[in-house]
Amino acid sequence: MPQRLADISTQAPKDFDKVKTREKTALLLDELDELQNLLFAEAKHSVLVIIQGMDASGKDGAIKNVFGTLNPQGVAVRSYKAPTQEELSHDFLWRIHQHAPAKGMIQVFNRSHYEDVLITRVHKWCNDEMAFERMKAINRFEALLSEHNDTQILKFYLHVSPKEQQERLNERIDDPRKQWKYNANDFNEAKLWDDYMKMYEDCFENCNKIPWVIVPADQNWYKEYVIADTLLQTLSSLSMKYPGLKKE
Fold first, then answer.
1. Which residues does 98 contact at the CB level (< 8 Å), separation at least 6?
2. If you write DSSP's letter for every residue of 32-92 in order, what string do you get?
3. Helix boundaries (H) for 64-161
4. Residues of the chain with pLDDT under 50
C-alpha cells in the first residue's frame, strides 16, 4: 500500500523526552566517533547518506550536528543545487556518481539525485514517463554502489509540517544569523506543497529497494537522534576490525 505522508506524524513520539533524548544522542555520537575511525582504518566499506526534505526541513542542521563531530578526514558533504550547464550536458546521474564515497568514507548528500524526479516533475521540466525511467536508473545506480562497492546507503526524508516550515522560513527574515539563508522563492515553492508530497510518495513507492527512513523533523533534537541512531546501527552491523601490522 502506498505511503501517504499526510498520515505520518512530523512530531517526536510522546514518550520521547527532549533532555533525555539529547543525552542519548551525545552518547551515540561518542560511539560513532570510534566506529567511523574503524570504517576509515579498515577501508572495506563506505557509507552514502542521502538527506532529502522540503526547504527549511533542517538538512543543514542535521549535517552539522550529527556529522560535524566526526573526523573530517573521513566525512565529505556534497550539496546539490540547480545543475550547471556542464552538468546538464551529461546524463542526470553524472554529477552524482563522481561523488560516490570511496571505501572508508562517509559521504553525505544534501539533496541528491532524487531532485531530478522531484522538483523537475513539480515544475513540468520532466514528464512522468521520463521520471519513472529515471527512477529505474536510480535503483540500478544504488544497487551498483551497494552490491558492487560495499556501500551502505541510508536515505532520510526529513518530514516537517507546513506550519513549522513557514515559521522557519520567517525566521530567515527576522533572525540576522539566518538571513543569509533567505530566498524569496522558498515561499513560492512552499505553495506547491501538495505536489511535492505526491512526488515524494512516488519516490518512496518506486525507489524502495533500499528503504527510506521518514524522520519526524519538527523537533531538531529528535531528528538528530534518529539519524545518529540509524547510522550507528548501520556501522555496528558491519563487524569491522582494525587492520594488523602491515607486512614488510
1. none
2. HHHHHHHHHHH-S-EEEEEEEESTTSSHHHHIIIIITTS-GGGEEEEE--SPPHHHHTS-T
3. 85-88, 94-97, 119-122, 128-148
4. none
Closest Cα to residue 172, out of 160, 161, 185?
Answer: 185
At CA 201, angle to CA 163 and CA 51, rounded to 5? Answer: 70
pTM of the model: 0.96
Q: What are phi and psi of 8, to 5 degrees?
A: -110, 130
Distance CA 65, CA 224 (A): 7
52: which strand partners?
157
Nearest CA to 142 out of 134, 131, 153 is that of 153
- CB neighbours of residue 63 within 10 Å: 19
Instruction: Output the CA–CA distances (angstroms, integers) from residue 17 to 7, 13, 22, 32, in the order listed.
Output: 23, 9, 8, 22
Selection from 2, 1, 9 nearest residue 214 by Cα: 9
Which domains, and CATH codes, for the chain?
44-236 (3.40.50.300)
For cell 546539490, the residue is 80
Query: For the segment 216-241, what is each residue's pLDDT rounded down to a tens digit?
Result: 999 999 999 999 999 999 999 999 99
User: Residue type at 179?
Assistant: Q
